[in-house]
Write a structure and sequence with these properties.
CATH architecture of chain B: 2-Layer Sandwich
Radius of gyration of chain B: 15 Å
Number of strands of chain A: 15
Mean pLDDT of chain A: 80
Organism (chain A): Tieghemostelium lacteum (Slime mold)
Largest sheet of chain B: 3 strands, antiparallel
Oligomer: heterodimer
Strand order of the largest sheet of chain B: 1-3-2
Structural class of chain A: alpha+beta
Keywords (chain A): DNA damage, DNA repair, Nucleus, Transcription, Transcription regulation
Largest interface: A-B, 33 and 32 residues
Low-confidence stretches of chain A: 270-277
CATH superfamily of chain B: TFB5-like
Strand content of chain B: 25-35%
Shape of chain A: globular
GO molecular function, one term (chain A): double-stranded DNA binding
CATH class of chain B: Alpha Beta
Strand order of the largest sheet of chain A: 9-10-12-11
CATH topology of chain B: Alpha-Beta Plaits
Number of helices of chain A: 21
Order of helices and strands of chain B: EHEEH
Low-confidence stretches of chain B: none
Radius of gyration of chain A: 28 Å
Helix content of chain B: 40-55%
Number of domains of chain B: 1
Function (chain A): Component of the general transcription and DNA repair factor IIH (TFIIH) core complex which is involved in general and transcription-coupled nucleotide excision repair (NER) of damaged DNA.
Number of domains of chain A: 4
Distance between the termini of chain A: 59 Å
Mean pLDDT of chain B: 83
Protein name (chain A): General transcription factor IIH subunit 4
Number of strands of chain B: 3
Chain lengths: 444, 72
């Protein structure tokens, strides 16, 4: 998961600071892969163990997983190695023990006695977070909208969009890859950039990380008191609202409501235990693909979302739009525009395959071969000249001199090309000095 | 004595190579003709390669005929 990469990049002090928070420890524990959880729990009640002994924890065939898991735990500084022994990070260990014993612990007290008059329902919260996050994604694909300054700034500093020659914001190839990822990876990507900007401004990245982890333990559909938060957390709250992670009706409202997005942020799944499976299925139904691409390059998108249509218009020439359907055509020109933006043919093909309409997938080919091939050809014709910085040698006095130099260049791994009949040798740019010296010394 | 040239080593298909030779006369590039598919651009840098890319792009645009053009 994205967040683990980020945490692994932090240094020991920062992580120790982070592990001082009880909820963070729990959040990290529960987002570890099952085998990681098992290792942690095995070590929880013992002080230290010989590293050799851990080998019997897994069967030999899963050696690979075993090693990877340990590497991950070491990277997160959850485990420390002392000569041949390993032990849990003592702060982390203490906190997990603590939380096991104390079941009554609450993140924030939710005041259920004073019912707010118009508390949002779960559906409303879902709707809010969905539209809010769509707005964020919409900023990626639509150059003109500058409606959420914070987000568009984040998108720029994370290189997902960049200003082109005319000062217009445009999606980059990174941005396109970003759109292909699942929503939690997307949120984390932006949150991590956000944390970095916060770190520059307030020097309080750790506190905010803890806060984020804490929020993921809240219950969906419950209101929590804003007044219990610190000043800094309140600032964060308004920013998180723009991501659709938190819902507050207005700035002076005493309650804030977590949305499904923040609650399942650390588990990485849409599944939350309180919800029945049926709603989950209904949710995932909605997320299904919508694109049908025909062999005549016509593309039908069964969607009413402006976001999806504006994404498609990055590489499809849209022709008409009906209430639940948009029709477009893949042309050389439209693909070329996408390629100029740095989007690759493979990304386009992946995108279509990823979002193909179920019926298109059933028929066997979500994207017709002829179209896929053509898109690749269009890309290839833009890169028909390969070039590399190089140094060329010619007019070698003798064939021996030429052959010896070629051999020497090959030994040094600088060789690019040679032509025996014309006695031409091309080597990498960096190799000019050694080759020149070699020729001067032996044949000069 | 051995001659040394710095620049860019280009690799492309034979028609493109001929086109590049043609372009080099117009734009006054110093091209060394190596073989059917290889050229050496003396003193080449990012901006010359950009010019070359642009010329190729224009050529390809001229030679593209789309059925969908009639739809417009």
């Amino acid at each position: 998961m994205k967040i683990f990469q980020y945490l692994s990049s932090l240094n020991q002090e920062d992580l120790d600071q982070l592990y001082k928070d009880n909820w963070t420890c729990q959040a990290i524990l529960r987002s570890l892969p099952p085998i990681g959880k098992q290792f942690i729990l095995k070590l929880l009640m013992i002080d230290s163990i010989e590293f050799e002994q851990t080998k019997i924890w897994t069967q030999e065939i899963s050696n690979q997983v075993h090693r990877e898991t340990f590497k991950k735990l070491f990277d997160l500084k959850l485990l420390t190695k002392n000569k041949t022994c390993i032990q849990l990070n003592s702060i982390f260990q203490h906190n997990i023990k603590q939380s096991l014993m104390d079941m009554e612990h609450r993140v924030f007290s939710s005041d259920t006695t004073v019912k707010e008059l118009k508390a949002p329902t779960i559906d409303e919260l879902d709707q809010f977070s969905k539209t809010q996050w769509e707005k964020v994604l919409y900023l990626l694909s639509d150059e003109k909208s500058d409606s959420i300054p914070l987000i568009s700034e984040l998108l720029q500093s994370s290189n997902l969009t960049s200003r082109d020659g005319n000062g217009q914001l445009a999606i980059t190839s990174e941005g396109f890859k970003f759109l292909l990822k699942d929503i939690y990876t997307q949120i984390w990507t932006l949150l991590i950039v956000y944390l970095d900007t916060i770190e520059k401004k307030y020097k309080s990245r750790i506190e905010l990380l803890c806060f984020l982890f804490k929020l993921s333990f809240l219950q969906l559909g419950r209101g929590y008191l804003v007044s219990e938060l610190t000043q800094l957390q309140k600032t964060l709250l308004t920013d998180l609202k723009q991501f659709g992670l938190i819902y507050i009706k207005s700035n002076d409202n005493p309650y804030f409501y977590p949305t499904r997005l923040i609650i399942s942020l650390t588990t990485g799944k849409t599944l939350s235990l309180m919800q029945d499976i049926k709603t989950e299925q209904a949710l995932s139904q909605k997320e299904q693909g919508y694109i049908i691409l025909e062999t005549n390059y016509r593309l039908y998108a069964y969607t009413s979302s402006s976001l999806q249509i504006s994404l498609l218009s990055l590489f499809v020439k849209m022709l008409y739009r009906l209430p639940n359907l948009a029709v477009g055509i893949v042309t050389r020109e439209s693909i070329r525009m996408a390629l100029i933006h740095g989007i690759t043919a493979d990304q386009i093909i992946d995108f279509i395959r990823h979002n193909a309409h179920p019926n298109a997938t059933l028929a066997g080919t979500p994207i017709p071969d002829v179209v896929a091939e053509q898109v690749k050809l269009w890309e290839a014709e833009r890169n028909c000249v390969d070039y590399s910085k190089a140094v060329l040698y010619n007019s070698f006095p003798t064939l021996d001199c030429f052959n010896a130099t070629v051999k020497y260049a090959k030994e040094l791994n600088l060789f690019i090309y040679s032509n025996d009949s014309k006695k031409i040798l091309v080597i990498d740019e960096s190799g000019n000095e050694p080759i020149r010296n070699y020729i001067r010394k032996n044949f000069g | 004595m051995v001659h040394v040239f710095k620049g860019l080593f280009l690799e492309c298909d034979p028609p493109t190579k001929q086109f590049l030779l043609f372009v080099s006369k117009q734009e006054h590039f110093e091209l060394i003709d190596i073989d059917e598919t290889h050229l050496f651009l003396q003193g080449g840098n990012e901006s010359t390669i950009a010019t070359i890319q642009r010329c190729i792009d224009e050529l390809q645009n001229r030679n593209t005929y789309s059925v969908f053009d009639q739809d417009k």
